[in-house]
């Protein structure tokens, strides 16, 4: 985004300052020019960064030097890692029940879309069908995105595929691992679940329908509770190194912003990529869809992102959601 092109709130400008400071010691006048703000504003933004834990030394001639970056996830840090055009409103909270519940409530109160809420910790993180989502303190990315897409509501279910692509892409670029999508909403590395997605739709009195896209990514955990220790993994476990959550969050927002543009006409491109990453296609599976389960051969994704299952009687059936288990043969 060119400096001053659109409104930028304080966290966004402070994020841009943080990014500029990472390049090295810079005089305030140069920082002001790079950010497109008055020199006096640079001081205020540096104060703002320091209030959120950064340490910036200020030399009267040489300029500002970044001495220390905080570890906690803040909107400023996330913005400092965003490079593409999508600039949602970003909020971070220390602890909450569920960011999906929070974003849903905000949507129900008619708030505009393009809001992302991150939590350091969730006490009631949820998966599909009311299942629990383990959200360890300070070790993952637990976030929800409130959107009001202009496209018709019947195609909004495609957003789960787009979010899965964004998670897979950002995880690969930051952690240097290879990510697969287990249709419809899991992201796996080495067959372990590193991320899950939960999209929920609602409606509000004035602005109408909205969707909340919840994303949970296991980043730096070193262990998991017994029930999921065999199936879950963190990026740290699979990459053997600590992963910078701010960088991952920034890349995720970049990638999701790009994939969101494929919601309408370009969705076939997303389907091509999602098919290439799919860990279920070409396998014999059992698919639990509500109270009924089906066994068959997972043949392809259709143009809408539904799974096409070849049933034992030879017929082909499309599923828009379900729980997949791989079968031995
Ligand atoms: C999901 O559900 O995978 C969707 C998870 C979405 C979580 C995000 S975090 C931010 C936002 N706020 C929320 O409250 N939720 C969203 P599902 O496919 O139903 O998988 C749930 C199952 O995954 C559980 O029953 C466990 O078996 C397993 N599980 C729970 N926590 C896990 C974790 N941290 N990592 C891997 N697997 C986990």
Descriptive notes:
By secondary structure, the chain is of the alpha+beta class. It has three domains: 3-68, Arc Repressor Mutant, subunit A; 75-277, Bira Bifunctional Protein, Domain 2 (BirA Bifunctional Protein, domain 2); 284-326, Roll (SH3 type barrels). It is 30% helix and 29% strand. It has nine helices and 14 strands. Strands 3-4-5-9-8-7-6 form a seven-stranded mixed beta sheet, with helices on both faces. Strands 13-12-11-10-14 form a five-stranded antiparallel beta sheet. Helix 1 packs across helix 3, helix 6 packs antiparallel against helix 8 (245-260) and helix 6 (158-175) crosses helix 9. It is elongated and about 80 Å long. Biotinyl-5-AMP is lined by residues 98-100, 122, 125-128, 131-135, 142-144, 185-186, 193, 196-198, 214-216, 218, 228, 232.
How are the SSEs placed, and which strands pair?
Blueprint: H1 10-22, H2 28-35, H3 39-51, E1 55-59, E2 63-68, H4 75-80, E3 89-96, H5 99-108, E4 115-122, E5 140-147, H6 158-175, E6 180-182, E7 186-189, E8 192-204, E9 208-218, H7 235-239, H8 245-260, H9 267-276, E10 284-289, E11 292-301, E12 307-310, E13 316-319, E14 323-326
The structure holds biotinyl-5-AMP.
Biotinyl-5-AMP (BT5) binds next to α5, β5, β8 and β9.
